[in-house]
Amino acid sequence: LELDASQLHINPSHTFSCGQAFRWHPLDQKGSKWIGVVGRNVLAVTRDTVKIYSDNSEKNNDEKERIMDYFAFDEDLHRVFQDLPKDPYLLTAIQEFEGLRLLSQDPWECLVSFLCSINKNIPSIQRIIENLCNRFGERIETDVGKYRSFPSPQSLANSKESDLLSCKVGFRSKYLRFIAKKIVSGELDLDKLKDLSYEQAKGILVSKISGKTFGVGNKVADCALLFSLKKREAFPIDVWMLRCIRSHYAKRFEINVSALKSLSPKNYEIISKDLRSYFGKHSGYAQQYLYMKTRTDAIYSR
DNA sequence: TCCCAGGTCCTAC
DNA sequence: GTAGGACCTGGG
Fold it and tell me: Is residue A237 within 8 Å of residue A268, measured between CB atoms?
């Protein structure tokens, strides 16, 4: 099964290495072809094609549509850029990372991935998630090799502490099992959040239940909302975005952004709200281009 | 040995 | 409300 992506405007390197998804790997040094697991499919992606290798046990013609949805190919990048403000730094970022597309991932996988991201760097996050898939995922056998699916909520809800810790999740284990149990019990229905407004959905994600912690704060919630729950107006703020804001958008704020070492929930709300109103309904695209730009600038200036 | 990593929680003012 | 510290773990 194969999709023609030549007219769909995607740069695989920019799309898969920008930190929105963690299960993609380049096949060569140039990064012209990438392999990843989506649901029970293994995908091979270039600028021109998306090849779909299904699990042998599953034959389904809806797959094409689901893959189109995963890549959010219905979103026209040029139209997105037209709607964004034309400040110089953002324009440079958009030019430099041409073809970076926001994905529309599975909400459960996305939320768990960003719970794993807490206080970790990207290589570590990838390793943890790979460990979880190997330990708790199901086998996927395709013509291009054997892979593992992402763990189900049930598998993590029923997991033993020692098994989770063997995946190197560390203190995040309690977050993972907690959230998995809420999903299994039906207390939290992630797909339902798609139909709510950004504010409503975020309120549910960051809420606390019976005094116990979710592990989901502002940043993790915004990532799940942006990358998997169709809320393109979300604007996650992490340490890199804070650096970016200090360098290029500080003048917008009455509070002294440069003096902030970290973000209190209140300040997160102030900054996020202002930038969302500045960047508009596609704030998340701006965020992701700026994130990439800020990171690479930092690397080159070292 | 210390510091940092796509943060969040807990505790004390 | 908020500043300061702890937190699994691995790498520089």
Answer: yes
Q: Are A151 and A106 in contact (CB under 8 A)?
A: no
Tell me, what's the pLDDT at A259? 82
Q: Alpha-carbon distance A157 to A179, whole Å?
A: 8
**Distance between CA atoms of A35 and A45, rounded to whole angstroms?**
6
Residues 6+ apart with CB under 8 A from A78: A9
Strand C proximal to A172 Cβ, under 7 A: yes
SS3 A141: strand
User: What is the distance between the alpha carbons of residues A91 and A88, in angstroms, rounded to a whole number?
Assistant: 5
Instruction: Tell me the pLDDT tens digit for each residue of A246-260.
Output: 999 999 988 888 888
Question: Which nucleotide, over all strands, has the C1' atom closest to the CA of A213?
Answer: B9
pLDDT of residue A209: 57
Q: What are the tens digits of pLDDT across the range A156-189?
A: 999 999 999 999 999 999 999 999 999 999 999 9
Amino acid letter, residue A113: S
Which two tokens mark A80?
């997105």
pTM for this entry: 0.96
Identify the residue whose Cα has the smallest distance to the C1' of C1: A266
Which helix (H) or strand (E) segment is A140 a member of? strand A139-142
Q: Which two tokens stand for residue A186?
A: 């039906």
Rounded CA-CA distance A139/A58 in Å is: 12
Task: Tell me how far apart the alpha carbons of residues A194 and A110 are, in angstroms, rounded to a whole number.
Answer: 14
Summarised one tens digit per residue, pLDDT across range A19-66 is 999 999 999 988 999 999 999 999 999 999 999 998 866 666 788 999
Closest alpha carbon to C1' of C8, residue? A170
Whether A302 sits with its Cβ under 7 A from any strand C atom: the answer reads no
Tokens encoding A284: 């998340």
Give the H/E segment covering residue A5: none
